[in-house]
Amino acid sequence: MHIRTSKSHIIRGGGGHMKPVRVFAVTPALPPALEPLRSIALNLRWAWTPEAVELFRRLDRDLWEETYHNPVKLLGSVSQARLQEAARDPAFLAHVARAAEDLRASLNAGDTWYARSYAGAGPNIAYFSAEFGITECLSIFAGGLGMLAGDHLKSASDLGLPLRGVGLLYQQGYFRQYLNQSGWQEERYENNDFYNFPVSPCRDSAGAPLTVAVPMAGHEVLAQVWKAQVGRVPLYLLDTNFAGNERSEDRDITDQLYGGDLEMRLRQEILLGIGGYRALTAAGEDVHVFHMNEGHSAFLALEHARALMRRHGLSFAEARSLASAGLIFTTHTPVEAGHDYFPSDLMHRYFAAYAHEMGVSWDEFMGLGRKNPSDHGERFCMTVLALRMAAASNGVSRLHGEVSRKMWAPLWPALPEDEAPIGHVTNGVHFQSWLSLEMNQLYDRYLGPKWREEPGDCDVWKVAERIPGEELWRTHERRRQRLIAYSRKRLQEQLKRRGAPPSDIAAAEEALDSEALTIGFARRFATYKRATLLLKDPDRLARIVNDEKRPVQFIFAGKAHPRDAEGKEFIRRIVATARRPEFRRRIVFLEDYDIAVTRTMVQGCDVWLNNPLRPLEASGTSGMKAAANACLNLSTLDGWWDEAYRAGIGWAIGDRRSYDDPNYQDQLE
Length: 669
Fold this sequence. Notes:
Elements: E1 2-5, E2 10-12, E3 18-20, E4 24-27, H1 36-42, H2 50-59, H3 61-66, H4 71-77, H5 80-87, H6 90-108, H7 113-118, E5 125-128, H8 144-159, E6 163-168, E7 176-179, E8 185-188, E9 200-201, E10 211-216, E11 219-230, E12 233-239, H9 248-251, H10 262-282, E13 289-293, H11 299-312, H12 316-324, E14 327-330, E15 341-342, H13 344-357, H14 362-367, E16 380-381, H15 382-389, E17 392-395, H16 398-408, E18 423-424, H17 431-434, H18 437-447, H19 450-453, H20 458-462, H21 469-497, H22 502-507, E19 517-522, H23 538-545, E20 552-557, H24 565-579, E21 587-590, H25 595-604, E22 607-610, H26 622-628, E23 632-636, H27 641-644, E24 650-653, H28 662-668
Parallel strand pairs: 5-6, 5-13, 6-12, 13-14, 14-17, 17-18, 19-20, 19-22, 20-21, 22-23, 23-24
Antiparallel strand pairs: 1-4, 2-3, 7-8, 9-11, 10-11, 11-12, 15-16
Helix pairs in contact: 1-6, 2-6, 10-11, 11-12, 21-25, 25-26
């Protein structure tokens, strides 16, 4: 047996909950023949490599599920007897060898898209984001922003881009969802054990844990730097919950993703932007281009300018101009309330000394984050800071680009609204993370290897017409059957947790029909996404789902923000509807929406439903994941679907008109 010690005492957080700061981990010793499993587990490329996932599942299928698909925790929990048994199994050892060689070959491959296109001469890029959704066991994400960021890193690895990710390592991450007896969402926060995560502490030249100091309202906060390896791409993650910080409020900075009050949000964004920039420097990364994924990390623009001032003896104006050339900003939010604003007094407490160090007056500093720099009563906006500092800014779909130009046009009063310098780059997805194994095999058979190497090449997909319809349908039906089985099992687990009577638990085995048209809806339960739109006419809905010749069923999943009572009410209404006799076998809600739920649903649904209120969906990507699995989209013409929709490849709800009366809009759609 091995005993691993990290720092090990318990510190009580400011919120009163107990958080581990040091952990003693007793783990089985891997037999030498299984040692490659360790390196496979610590590189998150396994998350989009089916053979690697199957390797860990094969080691212990039950434990794989119990550990939330975490191979590091699996290896630390599996019995020594099982490890010895696997080490004597020639077939298992051959599987280990294949997976290890596949990882080695992928990391050492020189013939990448980037190498062919740029001969390795392009700049190193850092990608900053408040959340990253890479795999379900690494709980540092909440929704679409994190999913996109995770897919960015995976795609960069596949392409060979010289990218580094920067984020925060949250002690509790985002919440686990469960529903009470009435169908109301409750939240449960679980402490993350980083030493059982696929992450490793970075170390300095002396072998000590790497830390950086970040200014925080008159004192310095220390952040420990961790690294998750995402294929070829390193993801640096900052953590303040360790004994180097004496104040509980400092240790709590990385407590929860999007948790706490406005001041906590400011502290997290200082840590992400300024601390993240310093972490890259401390880790020896030579970065030339910085990409801010949403405004949370915009303080990195100021830190970049400050570093250039010190390095080259520049004024702030000179450094700002030089820094701008290497700054890119992506905005994701088409709603004013979704952007971060901080009052002047709070900003002064945290940035007065920082502004003075850069030789900038307080009014000039605050003006960087104000739409109107002369309005001293205006709050400091992170999006405005990013737009003012970055050389290039973009929305995440064509329509969102238009919305963003209109929203932020006051920053450029001399320009016509449609010439505001905000472009668009429509979001995409990392195919391998969302495709079923069966669809992978089908594409390999009929499209050849190019669909993996250049998935953006339209000519590759023209060949898809060669796939026989019968074979495609059989493949899809198998995935639907697995989705139904998965949903039934999950429903039974939900009912058991709530203490439901045995009759209800048994009845869950009869929920859904593996032959019925299955429509999926899985996303954040923000009210503008209108999850309850189809409940407007329950009598008509009952006739549709219970049609004997053409039965239809709906599978819902999603989380509401903990403080969003309206979103929680949407969930409660869906659950209440699902309990009615006429809907009991036709509508289900799956608790605890996560990457695994999304993956299973997009792989097995026949139709993907999306009905946001136009133009409030900046892009949306779940429909892309569904389409990759031969699932048809049914959506309002918003976000990416506004660009992708063509008659014959899916359906549009309504048209491109918007009405002032939301109830009238709901009735039309």
